[in-house]
Amino acid sequence: MEKSETIDFRDESDVSHRPRPVRPRDSDSPGNGAEASVRRRAREGAEPTPVHQVVQYEPAHSDAVNCVTSLNSDLCVSGGSDQAVVVYDWRVGKVCRCFYGHSKEITKLGCFAGSTWIFSASRDKSVLMWDFTGGPNPIQSFCGHELVVNGVAVSPDGSRLCTGSRDNSMCLWDVESGKCLHRNTISRNLVTHLCWVPGGTSIVQTSEDKTIRVWDSRTWQVTNTFPAKQYIQTHCDVNMNHYYLLSSSNGFGGHGCEATLWDLRQPGCKVVEYRGHVQTTACCVFLPTSIGSPALVASSSHDSSVKIWDQNTAACLFTLALDGSGPLSSLAPCDSSTLLCASYNSGLHQLQVSAGAPPSVREVARF
């Protein structure tokens, strides 16, 4: 199976995607009285400070959005409780493709870098493979798990797919044939997320048993198990130089709710913890690095906030509250200044990250 080339389906003459402004939001952080400040300054005869407008684009989903990932520099892929896999051009605010094939909600997504392949995991126990430039039906299916599939990742060469489930099993598949090559079941290993180490043969996996496991895709055995955290680990991410690992914890009332930085070169070595969320931290990601700027980490939480952290010092540099959005389930860096955030109540949020001193984040669009 050869990799497909990305094709731009945008029609520049199409005006259906022209934005509609929604209620004003402050350019930095909601809730600090930006609108009242404008009115006060106007009464005092001062030049009004412009209030940032959030653009409302065509909605991607009709229900909660559970996951989002980047397909290329212009397109993202999202999955929701409406059972749809949606390819969206976030730069112009337009749906490009919708794929339907799952019988229950989408839980996780994966893409093969440099191609148009999309992998969707679902509560219906299956993983389906789609081609953005192909037809409406899946081009491959991966069936064999006994419970919801919560983890999916494709190998750096695109030949293998790894999946993990609440049935305690991790499976390795041949992408071309859809055949399961290896299956390994570990008691209480209810998989919550997994990621393939960039350019490597290792897979990192989080679990409801509060541990993090590193797998060797060649032997399909666990090579390292990190010390168990106090709370369930919900998500993981590995940076591009494959030295560091992020994991996030569930929790409530500020107990748990942290993200943790680990050193993969020294298994079990906890570097720092990022504390500040007051409900489950559902997602944590490394942000693209900018020359002259500190390395940054982003996290999203069920407390409806996104936080930006200094990767090395664990200092919280900025908090953006997305009021009314409900739990924030997933984050996807798209370029050096754009971060997409999936929410239960208000769809997808396009966030603009400014790597200044200190960094800042503002919401610029919803869809």
From TrEMBL:
Q: Where is this region: Disordered?
A: 1-51
According to UniProt, the name of this protein is WD repeat-containing protein 31
Cite the Gene3D superfamilies for this sequence.
YVTN repeat-like/Quinoprotein amine dehydrogenase (2.130.10.10)
Species of the source: Silurus asotus
Lineage top rank: taxon: Eukaryota
The WD repeat units are at 99-131, 142-183, 191-225, 274-319
Among InterPro entries, the record links this protein to: WD40/YVTN_repeat-like_dom_sf, WD40_PAC1, WD40_repeat_CS, WD40_repeat_dom_sf, WD40_rpt, WDR31
Give the compositionally biased regions (Basic and acidic residues): 1-28
Task: Keywords in alphabetical order, please.
Answer: Repeat, WD repeat
**SMART domains named among the record's database cross-references:** WD40 (SM00320)
Q: Which PANTHER family match?
A: SPERMATID WD-REPEAT PROTEIN (PTHR19869), WD REPEAT-CONTAINING PROTEIN 31 (PTHR19869:SF1)
